[in-house]
Amino acid sequence: MRSEGRLLIVEDDTGVAEQLKWHFDDYHVVLAGDRRTALDRLETHRPQVVILDLGLPPDPEGTSEGLATMQDLLAARPETKIIVLTGRGSREVAMKCVEMGAYDFYNKPVDVDELGLIVRRAMHMHALEEENRKLRESALGTQPLDGLVAGSDVMLELSRKVEKLAPSDVTVLVTGESGTGKELVARALHSLSARREGPFVAINCAAIPDTLLESELFGHERGAFTGADRSRAGKIELANGGTLFLDEIGDMPPNLQAKLLRFLQEREVERVGSGKPIPVDVRVVCATNRDLSEAIREGSFRQDLYYRISEVCLHLPPLRERGTDVLLIARAFLEQFSRSQRKPVRGFTERAVNAMLEHDWPGNVRELQNRVKSAVVMAEGGKIDAADLGFESRPEVEHADADLDLRKLRDRVEREAVTRALALSNGNVAKAAALLRVTRPTFYNLLKKFSMQPPGRSGDD
Ligand SMILES: Nc1ncnc2c1ncn2[C@@H]1O[C@H](COP(=O)(O)OP(=O)(O)OP(=O)(O)O)[C@@H](O)[C@H]1O
Ligand SMILES: [Mg+2]
């Protein structure tokens, strides 16, 4: 299988050019014999790496045209890695090229294997830089919240709430089925707050035996109980200056609920076996996938504690209620995993898209993450099909809906079509527009209408 690497060879000697092309058949190779053609190919082909012979017409014996070509190429696409081929003994020229921004140089005559190594390294370097650039972009907020992919109104609304709440110190209760992103939201509340430099300490109240939970949370003094051979700070204390995330708070045993309540009121902890209160400055975020009002009715959760921890509630809807978000998130996971697995998977088939839209997602985003991940691991290039995601493929989606408001229906269908087109085209706007048989400006208008982000492309054609 061919790699994702695109290589432009700028060489006026067609014999040499063809020979190089033949040797580099692992890559998508295009050739150019002069500056104009090279610039054209750069735009249409977007090579990561260019091999550039300095002796180009009209100055085949000199270097002037080659150097000018290099400058133009770098001006047009500065991220391109250019490897310059120089004549024997022209060291100054080689150094000058590197000074002007060439990635590397190679002295003729060419040993294709050696040159091949340089090309490979250049491709690798380009990929690393590209990845960094993408990371930087996402840190700047091309997503509504760092790491949280969302396009549906409910989720965009929720992201705005998180942004507004983050800087304050209010205690937030995050609710939602398992795998809906509760911890992600808790981390976002932390990283968007003034406490972001402080610690984010998470403790899962359901995962720790009741007998240990108290000292985990509050710490203990030496000798407080059998086995306590030295003093230890608890998680609450460790979160000082930062955020304390109490996961599965609904599973906290009653005696600790009382103790936690006291902490929330006094903002002091007492280690087990010590009478000395220690003041702690933390922002508390709690999460649960249980229905706490039910637990209160049953008597397993204290109402007064509930009021303390739920100064503000954020509810994460299940994935199946987020419309076409599933496709956006699936695409994000696909990009992430195909990069980390170094598998050039190019998108989802229509059957996969239909299956994802139809599925109920009882495990929500985490289930989606797992399905896409194993699909990428198993994939042999090409696109991911319904079966790769572990679905029986079904041909058509039906919309059972009593809502006959035409405009709403049209909006929904339009929005779904846009999301699907993006998924099918692997985020390529031109292709997506072509699939919908609309112009690109119209397509951009649709994106704007539904407050969707023009995608960062993962594909390359
Ligand atoms: N909207 C989203 N966009 C991208 N990734 C998401 C989104 N929501 C959740 N994830 C990812 O899905 C995984 C599960 O999310 P998270 O652990 O926050 O869920 P949770 O509600 O805490 O689950 P559980 O109840 O099982 O603890 C994480 O890897 C998270 O980064
Ligand atoms: Mg969780």
Structural notes for this entry:
The structure is a single chain. By secondary structure, the chain is of the alpha/beta class. It has three domains: about 5-140, Response regulator (Rossmann fold, 3-Layer(aba) Sandwich); about 155-315, P-loop containing nucleotide triphosphate hydrolases (Rossmann fold, 3-Layer(aba) Sandwich); about 320-450, Helicase, Ruva Protein, domain 3. It is built from 18 helices and 14 strands. The strands form four sheets. Strands 2-1-3-4-5 form a five-stranded parallel sheet, with helices on both faces. Helix 1 links the parallel strand 1 and strand 2 (about 30). The structure holds adenosine-5'-triphosphate and magnesium ion. Adenosine-5'-triphosphate binds next to helix 7, helix 13 and helix 15.
Provide a brief overview of the structure.
By secondary structure, the chain is of the alpha/beta class.
Keywords:
461 residues, alpha/beta, Rossmann fold, Helicase, Ruva Protein, domain 3, five-stranded parallel β-sheet, 14 strands, 13% strand, disordered C terminus, binds adenosine-5'-triphosphate, binds magnesium ion
**How many structural domains can be distinguished in the coordinates?**
3
Number of strands: 14
- Contiguous uncertain segments of 5+ residues: 393-400, 457-461
Q: What is the CATH level 1 assignment of the largest domain? A: Alpha Beta
- CATH H-tier superfamily of the largest domain: P-loop containing nucleotide triphosphate hydrolases
What ligands are attached or bound here?
Answer: adenosine-5'-triphosphate, magnesium ion
Strand content bin = 5-15%
Q: Round the Cα radius of gyration to an integer and report it.
A: 29 Å
The average pLDDT score comes to: 88
